[in-house]
Amino acid sequence: MMLKLPVFSFYRHYLRQVRRLPHYYLRQFFRIKASDDFRALAATPTHKSQLRNSRIKRISKDLRRIGLAVTGRQDAFSYILDLAYGRRGKLKWELMEPLLTHANVPSLPEPIVHSRSSSRPPVYSAELSALLINTASRTNKSLELHQLKFPPTLSSRANPTSEEARLLGPLSKRLEFNTRWRYFTREWKKVYPPLEIAVKGNNGLLSTSVSDVLRAEGRILGSQDQGLLDGIKEMVGPPTEVTPITRRERFLSGIEQSQSPGRSEQHHPSRWIRRRYQALLGRVPVLILNPSFKRPTFNVSLPLNSIALVGRNAAHRRPCPDSCNLAWLERANDKLRPNDKSRSNT
């Protein structure tokens, strides 16, 4: 149906769907994306019908996903979250581009083909290496550190001292160059880019301001100090919350409803949306810069209020026990003590 609509009607229908998104950042992102996509569509020459139809089809697909997302389709909502926060698409490349360059490298490696200076192997920056070897920032299993120096897809003949090189001869330099770069490109695409780099201070607190990152000789990402990660955390709320007591418990204890501890209101009211953003936090690694006098190091972690396979049963995901839980725990321990004594006597 969308293919038969005029461009301006199509654009207005797109914006009406975008207004239904639950978060201001999502609405702003897809307004800008719609502006760019429709400007490119309007600038497409009429005689290039195949290019025009492919752009219309791509915009229609995004519009269909937005419509499914606002009606409660989980996979569609996760897709637009990944698109808006750089887990996929063009924004992912823009976030990863600063980490792929070999800045702050003391010396570049020697070219594989000595007569060609452009045949240097890929250089893994300290930030990219930390993301590759950590499970929290990968779409699949993390890599080992030695795999960055010698890829597992590279034949052992690339090592001139190996037994295969002695029997079959050394590997072609051109093949070694292509294998190393293919492995580099394939693996960095499996990395979730961080939204910002945090600097760990002497007091243990993290700072994401541009001045602190530059002072620690870190790189500035495109979304640095824009509050994207804080906006997600505001939608989700704190990691753990106190379970509100029931009306009967308030009546027996004589506590007013206004005085009873309840859930925090500093989050989105819809639990379904909060869960989608919590799952998104499980795909947003936090790159922590540890400045030192010799060489800065990087650690990777996930936000405390995220939902991910890594750290799902961690201690911060468990609420603190209240007096009622402690009473039940003590009662259970009292019942187990006589049995333990009888077992020890036998």
Automatic annotation (TrEMBL):
Q: One Pfam family from the UniProt entry?
A: LYRM2-like
Ranges for domain LYR motif-containing protein Cup1-like N-terminal come to 11-96
Annotated InterPro entries? Cup1-like_N
Domain of life according to the entry: Eukaryota
Name the record gives this protein: LYR motif-containing protein Cup1-like N-terminal domain-containing protein
Look up and give the organism this protein is from.
Answer: Lentinula lateritia
The beginning of the lineage is: Eukaryota, Fungi, Dikarya, Basidiomycota, Agaricomycotina
